[in-house]
Amino acid sequence: MERLVTVSVVPLWGAETLNLRFLLITLILLMAGCSSTAHRVTEPPVVVSEATWRQIDQDIDSASLLSKAEVRRYTRGAMERWRQQVFQRTETDFIPWFTGYWTQQWLSMRVSWYKLNSQGEADSVVNRLTLYLQEQYHQRVLDPVAKVTDPNVIMGDAVALYVQMLDVSLVEIRERYAVPQQQFDRRLNEIPAISLAPPPARNASLYVLTHTEPLTALPAYVALIEQVRGSNNGAGAGLSDAGISSVAKRASERLEAQIATRSIASAVAAAVGRIAGAAISVVTAGIGAISNESDRPEAQAQMRKSLSAAFDKAWLGLMENETNGVMAGVNYISGEIDDSMVERSLSVPQAPATPVRPASFSDDVGDTSP
């Protein structure tokens, strides 16, 4: 008996059809990708006219000045708090210390020692006493206050706040004129903000300044802060020098007169004998103490007046001085930006501003930066 065998044959054309469909789909996807890429490559770049760049420069300069004005208000408030703290510390610590009886006795001894080594120069005595009183004023007033409110810290904070506010304004300016980010960044990189080279690391453009976080990581910023602090010689340096000098001069003259009186009393005591001499010395010391206490209100009033006048003058200097004031860092950067804008405006011929437009295919599509 024969067995029938059935053989199933799969037609080859079915597999070929599947492969053909796969190839067609792949080809379509590749063509779509190429079309998209070609479209991106041929998209014309944005051309920014020179007149538009000039207007952008003016807006940057204006933003710098506005930021500077806002920061000045902040620093004035901070320095007012510092001023009150210094006044309070002067009133409660330094003035009572200086006008105290035992301090006056100690200063008398110092003046005597200074006179012995002055070789007859009166100014030498006053100068040395002035330096000593300045040291005491720093130790008793300025240094403790600086632990709470330090003009040097205020100066650094002012720069950081200025950069932060200016950066916000720069973003708004770019969006206002619809300038491509790359072109705008290139423009900012051409504007100097800090120029303290050599070495070159002590220079920084406006772009670098506004894109470095934290600012303390930027060598140019560190160099600027060091330069300001170096010219200032510490927080409140020179604050009380003028007032202390006048106080020291009067104190030196008064103490010299007291020394002369004591010398006469000592001579009389030696002449009348040990017991009577001891009594005379005690009486002289008592009279000195009584005199000191009676003169103390007047002495405090004189010192308060001298220090107050010098303090007001020095405080104004800390606010306004371009070299070592609390706004010195901000003034420097703002000045660099302003000078750069002035140079640009003088070097480029004036022309009416035109809106930003796309470049045509006939335009030069190379580097569009001016």
Low-pLDDT sequence parts:
1-10, 261-291, 351-370
What is the H/E order?
HEHHHHHEEHHHHHE
What is the mean pLDDT? Answer: 76
- The rounded Rg comes to 39 Å
Domain module count? 1
Strand order of the largest sheet: 1-4
Roughly how much helix do the residues carry, as a percent range?
over 70%
Q: What global shape is seen?
A: elongated
- Summarize the biggest pleated sheet: 2 strands, antiparallel
Strand content: under 5%
Give the structural class.
Answer: mainly alpha
End-to-end distance, in Å? 100 Å
How many helical stretches? 11
- DSSP summary, beta strand count: 4
Task: Offer a concise description of the structure.
The protein is mainly alpha-helical and 370 residues long. The chain is built from eleven helices and four strands.
List its salient traits:
single chain, 370 residues, mainly alpha, two-stranded antiparallel sheet, two-stranded antiparallel ribbon, 4 strands, elongated, disordered C terminus
